[in-house]
Amino acid sequence: MSKHTYNTGIIGNCAFLAHINKNTNVDWLCWPRFDSTFIFGGLLDHDKGGEFSIRPEGEYESEQHYLENTNVLITEITPKSGGKYRITDFAPRFYQHQRYYKPLMLIRKIEAIEGSPRVIVKCEPVSEYGAVKLTVNRGSNHIQYQGGEENIRLTTNIPISYIFDEQAFVLNETKYLVMTYGEPLEAPLNSTAERFYSETVQYWRTWIKHSSIATYFQPFVIRSALALKIHQYEDTGAIIAASTTSLPESPGSGRNWDYRYCWLRDTYYVITALNHIGHFEEMEKYFSYVTDITISEMERYQPLYGITGKKDLVETILTDLNGYMGNQPVRIGNQASEHIQNDIYGQVLISLLPLYTDHRFVFSERKDSVHWIQFLLDKIEHTIDEKDAGIWEFRNMANIHCYSNLFQWAGASAAEKMARTIQNQQLIDKAVSLKERAAAHIESCYDPVRKVYTNSAGSSNLDASTLQLIMMNYLDPASEKARDHLAALEKELRTPNGLFYRYLYADDFGKPKTTFLICAFWYVEALAAVGRLDDAQREFGNLLQYSNHLQLFSEDVDENDGSQWGNFPQAYSHVGLMNAAYRIAMKLDRPIFL
């Protein structure tokens, strides 16, 4: 069986994300939000998912690349019958009228490169996850699709009859396809599309120029930063794990989840990555999202929330869709929102710590400090002795997890720093007490014979999440204890090809069949932290082979053949890459000319 990779690239503008296949089809597009129904969902069902393709007659070859330092995607098609053409896909984003312009608008520019190729445009959007076929109404220079939540309009300079009849035509001049949701394009087509293109290119290149990205494997870090950026829903600041749902962790596994939500348990890693590249605007928006949840959430925190902070994410199965490559079930919503994960209170405290320790933020941004520091410390106090589902969201297993207590320890440490900043002795004393209690739980996971921390108290199982004991300095990276712990984990969880399993014990769905990519990047960070810098560089370089043709990474990788699986692209895999590259770059710390 050949290696499986995802043959799509993503475009987006922080209001929506779209996946463009190398075969020119828009394989995935949810409107009006990341978590809305798909308008195009061929990723999950070729028949019911609709289609938006620009293909030639007969066989062809395809190449795809990003316009350098942008989220503008270029697909070049070479028909076997002759000629060649280029499709430029982008979601407009630029600064206008003192705010960011990011409409629900997909622009596709088609231009001949060689000869006079003939192309066929097919456009069939759907609604309600393919259950609703939209009514098609034709205008003089546009097509209107009705029957969904809002009208969708396709404005073009291609003769409408060619699109209606799916008839081939000669590409003898530049053509434009502008699809909009709700508001139609009420402006000249050609000049507007070209202006939006140039403005969008300029926006992305300026954004990268304003990023602090070291030279170590810089192109991969740049692509990861660009991918992470468009996973942020700018309206609220939430950052989603992935734009897709139900792409299986491995074929036939049933581990098909909806990742179009924001996991608080990943807050620390996301904030760290954004901080490394110096993007405070995105950090501040994310701060606001987390703070809004903190203020409104009077009960227990959920592990994940909707992009507007919505709590009710009921998981349902869509039985009418075939699923990706026939993999079912197709899930909408995520039952993990009902789980108990006690690391998240520490995650939130750590994520807000920069407001107190980084002097680029002004004091007025630390609103109502005493109230919410006390609130979060109370949450840690009430859950510190409690069993939970852990970082991997076990559905039918609960333990005193080492990882959960690590983040309670780290959160209490962050709270102590905050309390010292605002000079509140009562909060300082409480934070110190909770640090000690959390550390006692962590130490209950230590196996002195194997010289390793296990996944939970009383267990012999190892877990890649405990690599964080080293990176977060619970274990002194220079200590023998840290080196022993790392050695034990890599002996059991590292694969011959340099990948890393989360764990190898059976969970609710049996034993995992694929490795978890972010764990491999954590491993790289741990190697660098303990001083094994040559090993860290070798392992990091090795992991780059597991991207697709556009340097985009999935959630899971098959150890046997390097296949990509899981939701794609996975924002947190890219976060892992960014943080690992940064840690190595800081360790190298050598002049650029060497």
UniProtKB/TrEMBL annotation:
Q: Which residue positions does the secretion signal occupy? A: none
Instruction: Specify the GH15-like domain's residue ranges.
Output: 220-582
Q: Which Gene3D superfamilies match?
A: 1.50.10.10
Checking InterPro entries in the record gives: 6-hairpin_glycosidase_sf (IPR008928), 6hp_glycosidase-like_sf (IPR012341), GH15-like (IPR011613), Trehalase-like_N (IPR045582)
A GO biological process this protein is involved in? carbohydrate metabolic process
Q: Name one GO molecular function term.
A: hydrolase activity, hydrolyzing O-glycosyl compounds
Which parts of the sequence belong to the Trehalase-like N-terminal domain? 10-155
SUPFAM superfamilies per the record?
Answer: Six-hairpin glycosidases (SSF48208)
Q: What is this protein called?
A: GH15 family glucan-1,4-alpha-glucosidase
Q: Which organism is it from?
A: Mucilaginibacter oryzae
